[in-house]
Design goal:
By secondary structure, this protein is mainly α. The protein contains 6 helices and no strands.
C-alpha cells in the first residue's frame, strides 16, 4: 500500500476532512445528506457506500474551497498575493521549495478556511427555525455560551487561515526576491491590489 506522503496528507486535510464536516452541515439543510451519513455510520457498512461517501465528501470539500477562495482570498485577503509569473521565474530547486511551502502553509490555510465555511453553514442550519436544538426552551445562558463558543471558534479558524496564508505568501514571494534581488514582486493582475 502506498504510504501517506505530505502531498496526500495535504489534500486530506484541505478537502476530505472539511468535506465530511460540510456534508454534516448540509444535513441540517437537506435531510437526504443526513441519510447518506447514516449508512456510513453503521457497523456493517460495506465498501460501496463508504466509497460513495468519500467521493461526495471530497466534492463538498472542493465546493467549500471555492466559497473559501472567494470570501477569504479574493475578499478579506485580497492585498496579499503571489508575485506575478512566479512559476516562470523559479529554478527547479526553488520550485520544489515552492511546493513544500504549499504543503506546509497553503494546505493548512485551505483546511482552516474550508472548516470556517462549513461551520458557518452548520450554524445557520442549526439556527434555522425548526432546527435549533433549543427551540422548545427559552433563551438561556447555555444557548448564549453555545453561540459565543461557535463565534470564538469561527474567529480562531479565520485567524489561523489568515496566518497560514500570510506565511505562504511571504515565503513564496521571498523566493522571487532570491531570483531578482532588490526588485519588488509585481502584484498579479485582477488580484485586488
Amino acid at each position: 500500500m502506498k504510504e501517506l506522503t505530505s502531498t496526500s496528507f495535504g489534500y486530506l486535510i484541505a478537502f476530505l476532512l472539511p468535506g465530511v464536516l460540510g456534508l454534516y452541515a448540509l444535513s441540517y439543510w437537506f435531510p437526504e445528506a443526513g441519510a447518506l451519513l447514516q449508512h456510513i455510520l453503521k457497523a456493517d457498512a460495506t465498501v460501496g457506500p463508504s466509497l460513495v461517501f468519500l467521493l461526495v465528501a471530497v466534492g463538498v470539500g472542493l465546493c467549500l474551497s471555492a466559497v473559501r477562495y472567494f470570501i477569504l482570498q479574493r475578499g478579506l485577503y485580497r492585498k496579499k498575493c503571489l508575485a506575478e509569473n512566479l512559476h516562470r521565474r523559479l529554478k527547479p530547486d526553488q520550485l520544489a521549495l515552492f511546493n513544500a511551502y504549499a504543503e506546509q502553509h497553503y494546505r493548512y490555510h485551505q483546511f482552516y478556511g474550508n472548516c470556517w465555511v462549513a461551520i458557518l453553514i452548520l450554524f445557520v442550519g442549526w439556527w434555522w427555525p425548526g432546527q435549533w436544538p433549543f427551540d422548545n426552551h427559552p433563551f438561556n445562558w447555555r444557548t448564549l455560551w453555545l453561540i459565543v463558543g461557535i463565534a470564538a471558534f469561527e474567529l480562531l479558524l479565520e485567524e489561523s487561515s489568515r496566518d497560514a496564508f500570510a506565511q505562504y505568501i511571504k515565503k513564496c514571494n521571498a523566493l522571487v526576491e532570491e531570483v531578482a534581488p532588490g526588485s519588488q514582486p509585481e502584484v498579479a493582475k485582477g488580484s485586488g491590489k
